[in-house]
Amino acid sequence: MTNMELAAKVIQELVDTGVREFVLCAGARNSPLVHILDENKNLKVYTFFEERSAAFFALGRIASSRRPVAIFTTSGTAVAELLPAAVEGTYSSLPLIMITADRPKHYRGSGAPQTIEQVGIFSYYNEVALDLDAENSHLSFKSLSWKKPIHVNVSFEEPLIDGPVPQIKIPAVAERTKLPGQTPLGTLKEMETFLNTHKPLVIVGILPEKAYGTVLEFLKQYKAPVYAEGISSLRGHPELQDILIQSGEQMIHRILQSGECDSILRIGGVPTVRLWRDLEDKYRKIPVFSVSFNHYTGLSREVQHVNSLDLLSQVEFTSKQHENVKVNFDDAAQAAKVRALLMKYPESEQGMIYSLSKKMKKSSVYLGNSLPIREWDSCADQDSPPLRVAANRGANGIDGQISTFMGWAHPETENWCLVGDLTAMYDLSALWVTSQVDAQKFRIVVINNGGGQIFSRMFKKEIFINKHQISFESWAKMWNWSYQQWHNIPVTTELADKQIIELLPNAQQTQDFWKELEALWKE
């Protein structure tokens, strides 16, 4: 089998499996694959010069399209650049297919240029690692679970281009690979027993878009108190106003400590709230039942777990939860006090996010990393919910956030990305793909507070913060994006289609807000 025939076989198997988008990082060793992708104009191909950004962009496309996406790299350290996205894809159940080119197998272990041990490089973070060459070309994806990324390593001999470019056939009826979340690991009866014998507080984490309706209908019927994280896309939903906790995470602790709720029902991804970590020790005796789209419980202790959000539409209640007047009254009172603080300190980080969120109603909002997510959950306007919200919360890493946003962005909405300054600096090459995507309206908001301020309240050492005096105006100019700098949130302003907004919060107002918020919850 020639190199060109082997490359065509790999791409044809991907297409037959349902892959419709390909992310390409071209190099010499993967040139047989590059030629085929380039000359088959019926294939959707995104090109990148940098593998780490490309892989996170592919994760964004998977999250948006709910289809596997394949990324192609050349050999050597280019392969290693995929590891961060493979880790995120594993814990987010996003099946990235990694096609890596390699030098001939007899080069392995020799230390020859651009020769590393590529097979097995992803260790735990792939479902399978297939090692192909002309003599061993069997390839099939039919038996895979699609719960983790997949690695296909393809060795090519010299000369690399050794024949004509084959044509790839797109099936008339599109195959659609089922992503994880179809098969329950628990049972419907166990879920019903838990729901009918407990008074749970519901925490809703990140959800696949196709599950929004199912979860919404369940919550409306069950009527237990709900803490909906921003990344659930249900925070502030008008149909849940009578059961949503709106004053912040601290209310969860009050409810559990008062006994108003005796357990936790987790729906969706692993929650980002601090309470989730407290379930390991402080609240370790509180029962937890999780209903998710993957098999991770998110806790080291044993909990009941069901791997199917679809089961929420099948569950039957012997008795529904009743509206808790005391919880609603207390929550509403605290929420009003928090809003008053946000308006008192409009130039604090929290106040700026509150005002900024009002501009994002019915938009697509991507929340990048820890501090923006936590500040959004505590401060964003509940009356201006976005249409869809996303984040990379599988491994909670700082890298690849803007690249994932660029892949996830929707062509029919405004697309907002809220990130910290260090997170932005981790992913400066992300804007490379701007001209290749269908989405048109991008607003990347960088909260520039001079370093990693999430650590300032955790540790009292400046070394954790990575202080800097960098402005992001030159970054916008580099990629021909428009730039604005805001010290406060303007009531009206004209924004370009490709806009970077640098927020410069008032540090003193931010500190004063935190102090008064903490005092508020001690009352």
UniProtKB/TrEMBL annotation:
Q: Where are the transmembrane segments?
A: none
Q: How is the cofactor bound?
A: Binds 1 thiamine pyrophosphate per subunit.
UniProt xrefs under Pfam families: TPP_enzyme_N (PF02776)
Pathway(s) per entry? Quinol/quinone metabolism; 1,4-dihydroxy-2-naphthoate biosynthesis; 1,4-dihydroxy-2-naphthoate from chorismate: step 2/7; Quinol/quinone metabolism; menaquinone biosynthesis
Query: Which Gene Ontology MF annotations are present?
Result: 2-succinyl-5-enolpyruvyl-6-hydroxy-3-cyclohexene-1-carboxylic-acid synthase activity
Per its UniProt record, the required cofactor names are: thiamine diphosphate; Mg(2+); Mn(2+)
Q: Which domain of life is it from?
A: Bacteria
The residues covered by the Thiamine pyrophosphate enzyme N-terminal TPP-binding domain are 4-120
SUPFAM superfamilies attached to this UniProt entry: Thiamin diphosphate-binding fold (THDP-binding)
Give UniProt keywords alphabetically. Magnesium, Manganese, Menaquinone biosynthesis, Metal-binding, Thiamine pyrophosphate, Transferase
Question: What InterPro entries does the database record attribute to this sequence?
Answer: MenaQ_synth_MenD, THDP-binding, Thiamin_PyroP_enz_TPP-bd_dom
State the reactions this protein catalyses.
Answer: isochorismate + 2-oxoglutarate + H(+) = 5-enolpyruvoyl-6-hydroxy-2-succinyl-cyclohex-3-ene-1-carboxylate + CO2
What family is reported?
Answer: Belongs to the TPP enzyme family. MenD subfamily.
The free-text function statement in the UniProt record for this protein reads: Catalyzes the thiamine diphosphate-dependent decarboxylation of 2-oxoglutarate and the subsequent addition of the resulting succinic semialdehyde-thiamine pyrophosphate anion to isochorismate to yield 2-succinyl-5-enolpyruvyl-6-hydroxy-3-cyclohexene-1-carboxylate (SEPHCHC).
Give the record's subunit note. Answer: Homodimer.
Q: What is this protein called?
A: 2-succinyl-5-enolpyruvyl-6-hydroxy-3-cyclohexene-1-carboxylate synthase
The species is Bdellovibrio svalbardensis
